[in-house]
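Hi all, long-time lurker, first post. I run a small reading group and we've been trying to get comfortable going from sequence to structure in the token notation. Rather than ask abstract questions, I figured I'd post a concrete chain and ask someone more experienced to write out its structure so we can walk through it together at our next meeting. Sequence below, copied exactly:
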Amino acid sequence: MSSNGGSGSSFRAFNRGRTVNASVNMAIEDATSIESKTLIHGESPGEATERSTDSLISRTHGHLPPLRRLAYGVGHVFNDMCASMWFTYLILFYHKVIMLNNAFAGLLLLIGQVTDAVATPIIGYLCDKIHFRYGRRKTWHLVGTIMVASSLFFFWHCLPCDHNKDLDFGWKVAYFVPFIMIFQVGWACTQISHLALIPELTEDENERVGLNAIRYAFTILSNLSVFVAVWILLKFIHSHSADIGPSDEWIFSGTALGVTAVGLLFALFFHLGTREPSTIVEQRREIECGRRIPWYRWFLRPQLYLVAVIYMCTRMVVNLTQLYTPLYLVDTLHLDKSSVAIGPLVMFVSGFIVTLLLKLLNKYIGRYVSSDASAQNMH
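-- Answer (accepted) --
Happy to help. Here is the structure in token form:
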């Protein structure tokens, strides 16, 4: 058994050595070809060097080192943790803790979602058009991270209420709205730039699937960590009352601070460990491959509307379930307040298990049948 492992290691080392030698030989060939291109084709040394560099980059743009893949995968952790809090506890927090009526609590959620809907296409367009030395994707990711970090705590804690417990509903809403809008714009910046970075990091389809898988794995861990943290706080640390009320405000604002601290650490790891390719190289590759089309031509593709409607209906079911389950547990079923963490946690874990089963189903009976089965499962 050990001899087989040793021979396997030797064989892998031999293959790695061949790969390194091949890469070195290609680089040497490119370097030597610069001079010949200068003499034969009349290219300047700078043009020949740039062409050779682009060729070498395109060849080495396949597989990414494990650490770089991990760095990319954690780049959306901050957003995922924030989204978990937003969709699960926002209505509950404003209605039961801040004591807003149903209309004002729903209005704050609506303002946030409308802001996101308006900001997303605009940021997507600007993310493609505006270039920065730091990288067009990483720059927008950094801007979004700063916006989210600077606003998250303030719409999970009513600072004016600390000085005036009887503050009017209108003033509370006016206080929360700017921070919610800043948060939603920043969230969109981070999400779009992070997703748009995948095709720029590698041209290998399997590698892109792997990056998405790592990203999704950390999405699961992010959601689980939020639910577990809230459950611990409600069950063991602040359990003198069975109902959620104004005295529980620090639990949500404290969770927001913890999410900000952890999210910033992961964002730092992402920026230090992810190298965005040259914008010039990416533009040339897109032009050569014919992948860029005018933005208005997307509206002429029926697949766009089909995917949009399917995704919208799916998100609507998920969001409604996630938003109103905590309220249903405490207001209708009159369960202990720790249920607002246990319920979403059970639902999320169950959904993850179903996702694994659907992957097997997709493998054997096809993507469309399995997606239809998942839709029926949600209903």
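A couple of things your group might point at:
Residues 2-40 form the longest helix (39 residues).
Residues 30 and 276 are 23 Å apart (CA to CA).
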